[in-house]
Structures are given as structure tokens and as C-alpha cells.
């Protein structure tokens, strides 16, 4: 099975973190279902032409974060126990990372906290109209 994951060695983001992000995002949006098997470490490393230790590190981190579970001899699977909770936590982690990156970028551009807060409020109003806010 061809890999649905991709990496960009020139992005400045460590490859193992790129893999973690992609797996978490896939779980959060339902592209990876609870109980679904991930590619083996060896297969994913071959598909992406990266070191197997990099894939193994990403899988260890995902297991530590309770996103996947690994069974020796069977492989790695998206956790199915409490799948809804894992998907929700994973979705929150992905969103938190995206917010952190946006806020880091705003700070590096020299925006003040109040200017950043105003932009966040404007963006929230754009994507979450007031009538949705009460629900």
C-alpha cells in the first residue's frame, strides 16, 4: 500500500515531527479510523526514503501520546479504545499547534498582544458567526 504521508526534508521541521503531525491530523479528521493499521516502520521508511529510526521515533511518540498502539509482531494501529476521546484530543493538539504557530508568527512580525488579540477576534468572527457562538 502506498504511503499517504509525505515529508519535506528542507522545511526546517524535523521529519519525525512532520510524521507525528500528519498521523495526528489524519486521526483527527477521520482519514485514519480507529483500529486501522499504519504502515510498518520499514515500509514507511522505504516509501519516504528516510531512516527507519526516524519512523520508529515518530511511532514511539505517537504511542506515548496515546494516538496509536503497537503490538509486537502485528504492527502499529490507531487506538480504538476510547477512539472518540483520542480523536478529540488529537484534534485539539493539532489545533493548538496551529494556533501556537500563528501566534509565534504574529509575535515575530512585531504585533503587540492587543493587536494579535484583535486579529484573533476578527478571524473568529469571520469563521464562527455570532449566532454559532451561542450554541
Fold and architecture overview:
The chain has 135 residues and is mostly helical. The protein has one domain (1-135): Winged helix-like DNA-binding domain superfamily/Winged helix DNA-binding domain (Arc Repressor Mutant, subunit A, Orthogonal Bundle). The protein has 6 helices and 2 strands, in the order H-H-H-E-E-H-H-H. It has helices spanning 15-28, 41-48, 52-64, 83-108, 113-127, 130-133, and strands at 68-71, 75-78. The chain has a two-stranded antiparallel ribbon with strand order 1-2. Helix 1 (15-28) crosses helix 3 (52-64) and helix 2 packs across helix 3 (52-64). It starts with 14 loop residues before the first helix and ends with a helix.
